[in-house]
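Technical annex B. To support the medicinal chemistry partners, we prepared a structural model of the target in complex with adenosine-5'-diphosphate, based solely on the information shown next.
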Amino acid sequence: AQERLVADVSHELRTPLTTVQGNIDLLQRVLRSNGANPSLTPEISAILPEILNEVEDETKRMNNMIRDLLLLAQADSGVLQLKMEAVELDTLLLDVYRQSRKVAERTKGIGALEIRIGHEDQALVWGDPERLRQVLVNFTDNAIKYTPSGGTITLSLENQKNWVKVTVADTGIGIKAEDREMIFERFYRTDKARSREMGGSGLGLSIARWIAQAHNGKITVESTVGVGSTFTLWLPEYVESATATPDLQPVADQ
Ligand code: ADP
C-alpha cells in the first residue's frame, strides 16, 4: 500500500508542478521583454528576477525528486525494466567525463575543478546503458558538488579478474564513517549536504545502488574526511560466449 501511495502521490504532484513551471516561464518572458514595469516599485522590480530564479530552481528540484521517487516506486514494484545490451563501458565513461566537465564549469566556474581520466582499460558489460550512465552521473555530480574549488576529480576504468571496476575519486569534503553506512538510504544526506545551495534530494545513491544490484554488481565507497571520497561501481565482466557466465563471487570490499 505504501509503494502504491508513493507512486500515486508522485504522479499526482506532477500536474500542479507543470502549471507552476509554465507560469514561471511566462513571467520570466514578460520580464525579459518589458524590462522594469513602471507600475512596480523599483525595489520589487529589482528583486523579482531573483525571486523567479529561486522559485524555478526549487521547482526543478521538486521535479527531479518526483522523477526519482517514481523510479524507486517502479523498482520496488518490479515493473522497472532494464533494456539490456552489450555496453562498451569505456565509451560510456568518456561521455560522462565530457558531460561532467560541462557541469563543473557551469556550477563551479571555469578551471575551478580539474576533471581527468585516470586508468583507462576497455571493458564490455551486459547492461542498460542509460541506467549505467545514471549511476556514473550521480557519482560525478556528487563529486563536483562536494569538492571545493582547486580540487581534482578522477574517473577510472579497470578490469579486475572477472569484474569491471569504474571509480570516481574526488579530493572533496569526505564522508564520516558513520555516514558512510547511511548515504545509500533514501533521503539520507549528511549535515554538510543539507544546505540549500547543495541541491540534491538524497535519493541519487539509493537509485544507484538499486541499478548496480539489478546488474549483479555493487557499489563500494572509501572516504576520509577532508581528504576525499572514491565511489566504485563493480560490474561482472561480459563474456560473449553463452556458456561462460561471469564468476559472480563477491569481491572483497575495498
Ligand atoms: P544528494 O542528491 O543529496 O547528493 P545522494 O543520494 O546522491 O543524494 O547522496 C547522499 C549523500 O551522500 C549526499 O547528500 C552527501 O551527504 C553524501 N555524498 C555523496 N557523494 C559524496 C561525495 N563525493 N563527497 C561527500 N559526500 C558525498
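Notes passed to the chemistry partners:
The CA atoms of residues 180 and 221 lie 8 Å apart.
The pocket of adenosine-5'-diphosphate is lined by residues 138, 142-143, 146, 170, 172-173, 175, 183, 189-190, 193, 200-205, 229 (CB under 6 Å).
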